[in-house]
Fold this protein.
Amino acid sequence: MNELLNGPFFFTGLCLIVYLLACRLQRITRKTWLNPLLVSILVLIGILSVLRIPYAHFKEGSSVIAMMLTPATCVLAIPMYNQRKILKQNLAAILIGTFLGALSSILSVTLLCRIFGLNELITRSLLPKSVTTPIAVSVCEVSGGLPAITVAAVILTGILGSIVIPLLFAKLKIKNSVALGITLGTASHAMGTSKAIEIGEQEGGLSGLAIGITGIFTVILSLLL
């Protein structure tokens, strides 16, 4: 058993199997709140707790997934390229939307942290919550925050955004694909973009571009504020 747990593929395979089953669960139930990533996290936590597997073993065994995080983010350039004409036509809207999104995210985090009396360390850890993980961790390290808190905030933000934003657009009867794509990418980074790609390639392309631009604005604003 110990040899299996210490192997290089056990936890990677476990993560993939749990995620695929979570995706199937959502397709069967058609419940948007059964987000595959959220379900996978809860199931994996339960497995580690029941089997008393140290997190250090899990982290080491699933390092292949972490290694693929940055290349997977780069793949988002494909729908961006396919939708390059629409991106050029809506460049002004994308720049304004992503800037205001990054600014409102940083200001709201700062304000809420002060209201709830959170210290500077926690505040700086939460500032990059709305950008994709590689950028968020880099911003956190430069500003002196805690990467573990940043990653948790990024995941939670992505999950909530990918669930709430499409529902909010449907409720408000907003059918503008440009607005939906920009909103998902700006507020929910890669998780929002994966949802946008499910909705349509145009939304996915706009969302993918919004991730990169929002990341740039977030880096600049977090250093200035």
